[in-house]
Amino acid sequence: xxxxxxxxxxxxxxxxxxxxxxxxMAFGMPVAVFPQLSQQAFGDPPGGGPAIGVLSAALSLGAxxxxxxxxxxxxxxxxGVMVTAAVxxxxxxxxxxxxxxxxWSAAACLLLSGGALTVLSVFRKTLLQAAAVDAMRGRLQGVxxxxxxxxxxLAGILHGTAAATWGTSWSITGGGLLTxxxxxxxxxxxxxxxxxxxxxx
Length: 201
What we know:
Blueprint: H1 2-9, H2 12-28, H3 34-40, H4 50-68, H5 79-99, H6 103-131, H7 137-166, H8 168-189, H9 191-195
Helix pairs in contact: 1-7, 2-5, 2-6, 2-7, 2-8, 3-4, 4-6, 5-6, 5-8, 7-8
Transmembrane segments: 12-32, 52-73, 80-97, 103-123, 175-194
Keywords: Cell membrane, Membrane, Transmembrane, Transmembrane helix, Transport
Membrane topology: Multi-pass membrane protein
């Protein structure tokens, strides 16, 4: 992992890809507060009810739907653009779920966010495989594992703390908007990421 992190420090496009994924996971993954949201906004009883099932399933269904369309992704060569669009789309859809006044509108937003998460996963992993040199791909997988496993855990802490301070809906909406804003800031800081396409594309 140390070798992977040292390599990333000198590779701004790869580093931005990792930061994009960490941003989406940490700021835009509100699963930890779904129980509170389902009770406060959609009338679930204490201990759980149908609303929390709908919210949780919507994310997975959106991811599945996007995965079924993944064959179309092979024709897209602007990988940096797709990662940026996926993170921003994910964040804005999550923000919409936080503002939703009905369970089904919240589920529709989460359906979109699940689809965006699949798009992010496909293009981020493709970018990492294409942009990294052969000798470093294995080492970067160690970093990838930490980001993938640690991001949602960090999200639970951040969303739980924000919900206790500002309320559940605003913790979800604020996290989604912050996700999109940080992604835009990353692209402005590393313009080459936006322009990135694999060699030979």
